[in-house]
Amino acid sequence: MDPERTTRMPLDEALRVLDVLEAHGVGAVVGGGWGVDALVGQQTREHSDLDLWLTAEAFEPFVVAAGELGVDRLSPWPGDRPWNFVVTDGALLRLDLHLHEELPGGEVHHGSAAAGVRFPRAALQGTGVIGGRSVRCEALEWSLRWHQDYPPRAVDRHDVALLSGLAGRPVPEGYEVPRGT
Predict the structure, then answer these.
(1) Is 92 inside any structural domain?
(2) Whole-angstrom Cα distance, residue 164 to residue 160?
(3) Is the residue at 166 inside a domain?
(4) Inter-residue contact 166 to 149 (CB < 8 Å)
(5) Nearest residue to 25 (alpha-carbon basis) of 46, 5, 54
(6) At residue 149, does pLDDT exceed 90?
(7) Number of domains in the chain
(8) Structure pTM?
(9) Taking the CB of the first residue and of the last residue of the chain, which one, N or C, has fewer CB atoms within 10 A?
């Protein structure tokens, strides 16, 4: 995702996406910055996209729902893979998709067959609130872990500080929010 992107995805658009996905039977799990805000229970910053975890089986109904939303473009970014990529409507809607498969024994597989990662299904069984609506989101511990998997930007420092506070932990080194921001 382009950290300098100026177009923002407002709350009402994020809720519209979730409503349309639900109407099409797509059980999406919210991640990324909106996932952090869901865990906090209120919007804490602007967002340029909506990260969504989808099972591979939900991809076909997602495509139908995306058409209804006007999402019809792939937005290539370095590092995109068939299981993690961005689609957009060219305006407000930017959806960062994380496709996965649920495995026997309570695990989830994300990535290629040769180099994917596995994690417990519980990582995607958090609950939170966006705009007064209850949503499924990344679990707190996993959201905190995943927000530290790349060099931090200002939004990552913001998110990690919030997640650390929710978890009752100190903010990890390198993720401190500079004073006055």
Answers:
(1) yes
(2) 6
(3) no
(4) no
(5) 54
(6) no
(7) 1
(8) 0.92
(9) C
Q: Is there a domain that residue 168 lies in?
A: no
Share of the chain above pLDDT 90, in %: 81
Q: Which domain holds residue 87?
A: 11-139
Q: What is the pLDDT of residue 3?
A: 41
Question: Which DSSP symbol is given to 167?
Answer: H
User: CA 134, 33, 50, 107 torsion: positive or negative?
Assistant: negative
Give per-residue pLDDT as tens, 7-26. Answer: 688 999 999 999 999 999 99
DSSP per-residue letters across 46-112: --S-EEEEEEGGGHHHHHHHHHHHT--EE---TT-BTTEEEEE-SSS-EEEEEEEEEETTTEEEES-
Please, which residues have CB within 8 angstroms of residue 161's CB and are 6 or more apart in sequence? 171, 175, 176, 177
Average pLDDT, the chain: 92
